[in-house]
Write a structure and sequence with these properties.
273 residues; alpha+beta; 14-stranded mixed sheet; 26% helix
Length: 273
């Protein structure tokens, strides 16, 4: 009896270790699929917008921009019924090559405008930086069981001594944009996506973080990008299978430990009899 009790005392720490392994594995797999949470909140004016054309009245825009350093900018486009139909959380930097290289942060209080439809949706974010007016635009298309980003465009307009300097560049190759997801899902990525736009001037849009739901009133379950060496942006991958496999392996470890020590306890009891 004493030996069996001692054997059980050996079993309990092993079971505890197994449960800890199971918990840690579950935490790791859960963290890999967790939703990115923003640390910033926009003023109410910038958080929603009714359906509008991509033309923005820059004269009404605030002269000072809110720094994006604290996290995402949150932008919504609303339909005729007043409900959100496109949601975009984004943090990005635009690099423009003029006489010298200039960089512009997308501010948290950029003004959104856009359109929503059953098959196509678009959003434009406009802001001022000193005497320059800038706009970033994204266009989305649904096809079969997926939606994809079909265009990322940037416009820069600046008045120089009465003359207008205008720079326009765009990337219309969805294979290079590679921001796509299953039809009912959103897309998110916290990896840096460096996208080169085509135009007379060199323009690069570096997306630091993005979460977008171009067809829906709420962020759905997300397809998460997976970094691919030498390729940006990255292809979204399904995270369900790795999560299930991790949990199964952790469960098997716990079962093997318990089985081993239970068998050991039984063998010890038989030898003494």
């Amino acid at each position: 009896m004493a030996q069996r009790t001692a054997c059980l005392f050996q079993l309990y720490p092993s079971v505890f270790v197994g449960l800890v392994i199971f918990y840690l594995t579950s935490e790791v797999t859960a963290n890999s699929t967790s939703t990115m949470v923003s640390s910033s909140i926009l003023p109410s004016k910038a958080s929603t917008s009714t359906i509008a054309s991509s033309t923005v009245d820059f004269s009404t825009m605030p002269p000072k921009t809110q720094s994006p350093a604290s996290g995402y900018g949150h932008f919504n486009i609303s339909g005729a019924d007043g409900k959100p139909c496109l949601l975009l959380d984004i943090s990005c930097v635009v690099t423009l090559q003029l006489q010298s290289e200039e960089t512009f942060d997308l501010p948290l209080n950029a003004i959104p405008s856009g359109t929503c439809g059953e098959k196509t949706s678009s959003v434009s974010l406009a802001w001022k930086s000193e005497s320059a007016n800038m706009t970033i635009s994204l266009t989305f298309l649904t096809k079969k069981d997926k939606w994809k980003t079909t265009s990322l465009a940037f416009t820069y307009i600046k008045d120089i001594n009465g003359s207008e300097l205008k720079v326009s560049a765009a990337q219309n190759n969805s294979e290079k944009l590679m921001m796509t997801a299953t039809k009912e899902k959103s897309f998110k990525c916290s990896e840096s996506l460096d996208i080169t736009l085509e135009g007379k001037s060199k323009v690069t849009v570096s997306i630091k973080k993005i979460k977008v739901q171009p067809f829906g009133s709420d962020f759905g379950e997300a397809d998460v990008c997976s970094p691919t060496p030498g390729k940006n942006p990255a292809e979204p991958v399904d995270t369900i299978v790795p999560t299930v496999v991790g949990c199964v392996l952790a469960g098997l470890i716990v079962i093997l430990i318990i089985t081993y020590f239970v068998g050991r306890c039984k063998r010890t009891g038989y030898e003494k009899m």
